Amino acid sequence: MRPFLIAPSILSADFARLGDDVKAVLDAGSDVVHFDVMDNHYVPNLTIGPMVCTALRNYGITADIDVHLMVKPVDRIIPDFAKAGASIITFHPEASEHVDRTLQLIKESGCKAGLVLNPATPLHYLDHVMDKLDVILLMSVNPGFGGQSFIPHTLEKLRQVRALIDASGFDIRLEVDGGVKVDNIAEIAAAGADMFVAGSAIFSQADYKVVIDQMRAELASVS
Ligand SMILES: O=C(CO)[C@H](O)[C@H](O)COP(=O)(O)O
Ligand SMILES: [Fe+2]
């Protein structure tokens, strides 16, 4: 398996001083910036758009930015995020009329592409598109808010998707998002995830490095 990646969700960052907070969480040893885009339509919350992504790049953030689109319809906003400096763009299949076309659009925009499956979304959405995926993101909470509890059923789903990825032979990251904490990250990794979004667990702590180091120590115990 590839190296584990820790991706703080900036949904839980301090929006009044976002650039500094993102820089701090990267300096504390995290790998990727997880950027949650919510439209008050596909999900019942409203967050940030491409201008904020551009602002982070202009501020000097060079780490990969993992844009998690919770918007419907999804296609129109993809080129804007690519221009704004997104590295990875993921979307929910329920938010796209043509999943294959949306994946192609992301790739043509120069970004890595991924599908996001909600807790109750079946795995068959992965059929026929595995060759176009760089990332599969399993939601371990229902999308819309940070600070929710990890849904245990996700562990079985992770095992199933890990088996699908391994059988496919494709180079696909398995990302998990929602309720990831120091005390459950090891079992989530053991179930097959290799990229871990964590918002409230990191940003609720005064010292980001302490919690990221604790997560790395837990991950080190997983073979
Ligand atoms: O996509 C999301 C919610 O829709 C967030 O990325 C997720 O909830 C992370 O927050 P936390 O780690 O606090 O659960
Ligand atoms: Fe997210």
What does this structure look like?
- The structure is a single chain.
- An 8-stranded parallel beta sheet has the order 1-8-7-6-5-4-3-2.
- The chain has a single domain, classed as Alpha-Beta Barrel (TIM Barrel), CATH 3.20.20.
- The relative contact order is 0.16.
- The longest helix has 15 residues, at 154-168.
- The N and C termini lie close together (9 Å).
- 34% of the residues lie in helices and 18% in strands.
- It is of the alpha/beta class.
- The model has no long low-confidence stretch (mean pLDDT 98).
- It has helices at 18-27, 50-59, 78-84, 99-108, 154-168, 185-190, 200-203, 208-220; strands at 5-8, 33-38, 65-70, 88-91, 112-117, 135-139, 173-177, 195-198.
- The radius of gyration is 16 Å and the shape is globular.
- The site of ribulose-5-phosphate has 22 residues, from strand 2, strand 8 and helix 7.
- Pathway: Carbohydrate degradation.
- Keywords: Carbohydrate metabolism, Cobalt, Isomerase, Manganese, Metal-binding, Zinc.
- One of its GO terms (cellular component) is cytoplasm.
- This is Ribulose-phosphate 3-epimerase.
List keywords for this structure.
single chain; 223 residues; alpha/beta; TIM Barrel; eight-stranded parallel sheet; 8 helices; 8 strands; binds ribulose-5-phosphate; binds fe (ii) ion
